[in-house]
Amino acid sequence: MEIALNQPTKIVGTVQERLGFNPSEVKKLSFKELVKKVGPGIILTGIVIGPGNITTSAMMGANYGYQMMWLLIPIIIMGITFTMTSYRISIMTGMPILHAIRHYYGGIASGFCGVALFLSCFFFTLGNITGTGAGVNLIFGFDWRIGSLIMLGILAFCYLTKGVYSKVEKGITICIIGMIVAFFATLIATGGPNMGAMAQGFVSPKFPEGSLTTSLAYISTNAAVTAGIYGTYLGLEKKWKKEDLFNGAMRADAITHIVTVVLISGAIVLVGAIVL
């Protein structure tokens, strides 16, 4: 997004006046062009699919089988809505969301949101760091703290190095594809799901006894408001323009994000229903 943080867009006049062009005249991108524009959503998927998400998804399948598959439907709707709303606010105000909150609602509101986001991301990152340590221990047999230190080193490199966005995007894309292939290969190796029971789970929404807490955790780990907010900052790195809100680029990115999230977490639920 071509956003000048010191020159916010005034929320007055028509949409055309605020943007400086007519949205209806923006040419839709071809599929090949859309693929090149997609990126922040993939990184957001890598952020969302963490130890908590995988654990909650496995618990959902193990405890309730196929009964909660219908939750994927509101997750898709909520995920796309959160992401697109964040992108739209960022484009229409001319700045990332936290900057917009500070500009239009003051320092107290932005400070509250900033602290809430920091705490949310801090504890989430702690889970990712310890999860990395557990993964290194499982694969290589090293002490889990070594894996955690490796992750801390990678995080420090990403924060302190300029121009690292494209490398992170490519690396996470490879990881996401690898996870999708791995989980679906596991799903096939276990004999595959019961298609009838799975279909019934999609069309019969209900909360089995004791499932509400796990369901809320499952929804919140898959459709996160924080992901959409962070996406507005990734859009800066991707160098999105205002036209990308109307040529299909941002919509394609949001859909790619939530579809990859659902593919991975849904596969984990199915494996949990079959194996655990």
What does this structure look like?
The chain is 74% helix and 0% strand. It has 276 residues and is an all-alpha fold. The protein has a domain at 30-94 and 164-275. Helix 4 packs across helix 13, helix 5 (72-93) packs antiparallel against helix 13 (249-275) and helix 7 (107-140) crosses helix 8. The longest helix has 34 residues, at 107-140. The chain is globular, with a radius of gyration of 20 Å. The model is unreliable at 1-6 (pLDDT under 50).
Largest beta-sheet characterization: none
Shape: globular
User: How many strands appear in the DSSP assignment?
Assistant: 0
Average of pLDDT: 88
Structural class: mainly alpha
Quaternary organisation: single chain
- Which spans have pLDDT < 50 for at least 5 consecutive residues? 1-6
Order of helices and strands: HHHHHHHHHHHHH
Strand content: under 5%
Tell me the radius of gyration. 20 Å
The number of helical elements comes to: 13
What's the N-to-C terminus distance?
A: 45 Å
Percent in helix = over 70%
List keywords for this structure.
single chain; 276 residues; mainly alpha; 0% strand
Describe this structure in a few short sentences.
This protein is mostly helical and 276 residues long. The chain has a domain of 177 residues.
What's the structural blueprint in terms of helices and strands?
Layout: H1 15-19, H2 31-37, H3 40-48, H4 51-64, H5 72-93, H6 97-105, H7 107-140, H8 144-160, H9 165-189, H10 195-203, H11 212-222, H12 225-238, H13 249-275
Helix pairs in contact: 2-13, 3-9, 3-12, 3-13, 4-11, 4-13, 5-12, 5-13, 6-7, 7-8, 9-13
